[in-house]
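Structure in, sequence out. Go:
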């Protein structure tokens, strides 16, 4: 069955309590993806947990712990049809403990809404979320100024947030003048799927309209097939089903594939038996599709989150070491040779050691400012040599930009972000 509309993955990120899940839930309900009946059930459940008003968030927050705490922990995915796209909405956690899941969400997204609560404005994590979106290559970002009902729908409150966020956007190289700011309330339904009657001064799009304003995603189907594995399920009657987004290329039924690095680092070969998306079986999946696959010859113990399913003829390299350009975002002291934080690369998390600081560079031009600096501090960009302390699939920016980006995290903070420019393959 041919697809009628192109796929678009949209992630909602923002500080805990900014109201992301409520915005998304309201969108699903007002957009007709959730029935009155379902909504009634969720309302009852929210009231039972003493979380009245959280029913819209419950549409996305399916884990029991999330419902009880009122905090999004893991990623949730829901499908929504707009006029132009078949949208997969990814609701990413905002709480600092859960940022690693947010990174995975951002790495799968074509566009993003950064949700800011109008009463509280910019929060400590807002800058981190923006950096992560940039690092993960999300070019299309809109700002949802939520909870406008809590500031009596005042234009000045909206403008204050707009001004503060505008400064942050400039800091990460995004032009605030060309960025859409949506004044909305997820709880009350203002400017989510329907135009608000409470803000006559607001002339911009609703959240749903903005989804159609985002440019259609680039679909790098000409590159070799890559699916970074997000999760692995064991489904009765089918067997092992890894799920993830087709990052690049085209996956077809019957295709010979290789899962890398796998447990051994050598990879394991198999064949694509079935491909499924949103409970439909497909003959093929293209870049941008979120799918579950059953791979003949690959069992539960052979594959895990962080592995990459590749076309066997053009496998993804497993690297011995690599050279990258990085920007230090938020390190408590300085970053020096020998430092070994965790690198988040596509869906993998691998400790990696900085073995050489080759040069500090000008981020705008890429030219060297200082060779072999002793250390790097916040705001510095540099060319560095890195050695993974485990098996890692990675490609260069030139060969496959979608598989080259990473975030560096340590002690619950995003320390740096960057992209790989050269690799040395494992022998």
């Amino acid at each position: 069955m041919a697809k009628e509309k192109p796929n678009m993955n949209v992630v909602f990120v923002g500080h805990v309590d900014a109201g992301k899940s409520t915005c998304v839930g309201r969108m699903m309900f007002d957009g007709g993806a959730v029935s009155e009946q379902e909504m009634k059930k969720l309302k009852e459940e929210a009231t039972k947990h003493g979380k009245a008003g959280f029913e819209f968030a419950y549409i996305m927050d399916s884990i029991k712990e999330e419902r009880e705490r009122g905090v999004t922990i893991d990623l949730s995915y829901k499908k929504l049809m707009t006029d132009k796209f078949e949208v997969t909405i990814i609701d990413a956690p905002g709480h600092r403990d859960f940022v690693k899941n947010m990174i995975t969400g951002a790495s799968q997204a074509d566009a993003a809404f950064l949700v800011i609560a109008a009463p509280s404005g910019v929060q400590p994590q807002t800058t981190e979320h923006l950096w992560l979106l940039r690092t993960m290559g999300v070019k299309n970002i809109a700002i949802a100024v939520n909870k406008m009902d809590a500031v009596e729908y005042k234009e000045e409150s909206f403008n204050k947030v707009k001004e503060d966020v505008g400064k942050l956007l400039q800091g990460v190289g995004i032009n605030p003048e060309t960025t859409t700011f949506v004044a909305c309330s997820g709880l009350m339904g203002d400017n989510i799927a329907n135009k608000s009657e409470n803000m006559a001064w607001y002339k911009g799009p609703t959240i749903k309209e903005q989804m159609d304003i985002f440019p259609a995603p680039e679909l790098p189907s000409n590159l070799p097939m890559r699916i970074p594995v997000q999760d692995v399920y064991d489904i009765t009657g089918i067997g092992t089903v890894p799920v993830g987004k087709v990052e690049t290329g085209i996956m077809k039924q019957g295709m010979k594939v290789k899962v890398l690095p796998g447990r051994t680092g050598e990879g394991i070969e198999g064949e694509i038996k079935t491909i499924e998306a949103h409970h439909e079986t497909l003959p093929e999946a293209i870049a941008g599709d979120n799918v579950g696959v059953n791979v003949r010859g690959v069992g539960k113990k052979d594959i895990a989150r962080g592995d990459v399913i590749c076309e066997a003829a053009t496998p993804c390299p497993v690297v011995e070491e690599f050279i990258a350009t990085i920007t230090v975002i938020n390190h408590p002291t300085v970053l020096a040779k020998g430092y070994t934080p965790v690198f988040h690369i596509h869906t993998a998390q691998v400790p990696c050691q900085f073995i050489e600081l080759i040069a500090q560079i000008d981020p705008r031009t890429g030219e060297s400012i200082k060779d072999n600096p002793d250390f790097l501090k916040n705001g510095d960009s540099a060319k560095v040599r890195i050695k993974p302390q485990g098996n890692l699939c990675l490609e260069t920016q030139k060969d496959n930009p979608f598989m080259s980006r990473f975030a560096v995290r340590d002690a619950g903070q995003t320390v740096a972000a960057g992209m790989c420019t050269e690799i040395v393959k494992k022998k």
